[in-house]
Amino acid sequence: VGNIMQETVYCDSVRLNQVLINLVSNAIKYTGDGGLIELFLDQMESPRGEDYIRTQIRVKDNGIGMTPEFQQKIFDSFAREDNTRVAKVAGAGMGTGLGMSITKYIVDAMQGTIGIRSELGKGSEFTVTLDLEKATLPVEEMILPNWKVLLVDDDLQLCEATSGTLKEIGLDAEWTLDGESAIEKAVESHERHQDYDIILIDWKLPGINGVETARRIQSSLGDENVPILLMSAYDWSEIEEEARAAGVCGFIGKPLFKSSLYYGLKQFVGMPDGGNPADAKKIDFTGVHVLLAEDNDLNWEIAEALLEDIGITCDHAENGQICVDMFRKAEPGTYQAILMDIRMPVMNGYDATAEIRKCDHPDKDLPIIAMTADAFSDDRQKCLACGMNAHISKPIDIGIVQNTLAKFLNK
Predict the structure, then answer these.
(1) φ, ψ of residue 36 in degrees (nearest 5)
(2) Helix, strand or coil, per DSSP, at residue 71
(3) Which of 44, 111, 235, 317 could be disulfide-bonded to 293 (CB atoms 3.0-4.6 Å)?
(4) What is the pLDDT of residues 394-410, one digit of tens each?
């Protein structure tokens, strides 16, 4: 999984699955025992505009490959490569020769393209490119505390991509490629009194597997157990009992999208155990003073009570214009952040933010965080475009609020 900018899109999932099944089945059919088949997913900006996302899927094998002549006609109906070579691949049947023409037909109907690169005796790579419409679904602000995380997987590309994704949601991520080095890193960090807050371990590691790695890490740390999650593309029900006995406390399925990582790790926010990622509940907001723009009195009372629970004091602005006026009159350093509703009378949150950003107050660049029921992805983008720093959807989750504030206030 590469650079995924939009996880949810509109498309005919049945037909897209049919394309993938045809391509992967073909790769299996023409790749002998011990061969390698890889599936890649990546995204980029679409030439069709901001409402679309270009999604690229590649299926690559190191099988028997194709002649240049056959590559020219592979998408024709009933096209089949010379069966004397095909027969050399164990279990490869004749087939109808229709699979690739159907695949091409579906991709064309989706207004996409399919291409092929192949070399005889070295394998083939099919690339499907689709410009898919973005789905306008509510998107939660994915920010977690600045936990120290260790990622353990033998796939270098996965480690590099996933560590980048973890950093995007606020985590300090390191990675290693095998269980032995993971144990060494965990012990070294423990001896420096800088334990990892969470460790993510692949189930099927070379050498000692993920379960045994977890067992040895927990044994090495003594009473200072660290939350360990097992990662796998397979169902873990058959080893769940063994894994939990080894100190594994959860499971995250592959592929590792941002959302699966976020929701898999979010469960540890607010855990009551010291030394675990629950330290998020121990963030000290004493002395932090914020300005809250909110036109609904009940929403204001609820927000004020929740913020006071974590040590934050706040002033109330009943609309965007009052918020701007209060900010302009405030002494420098009065407010460390502004929590801004969007839909307010007199002046909305977008305009209020723009006014604050262009005024001559020395604190005009302080964090402004949208706190609104407008929870769609384009609402979030509009908030950021007008000068806000982040977007939190209502009803507010105080854990998300404190993690967001901690990020911008360096807590």
Answers:
(1) -125, 130
(2) helix
(3) 317
(4) 777 777 788 788 878 87
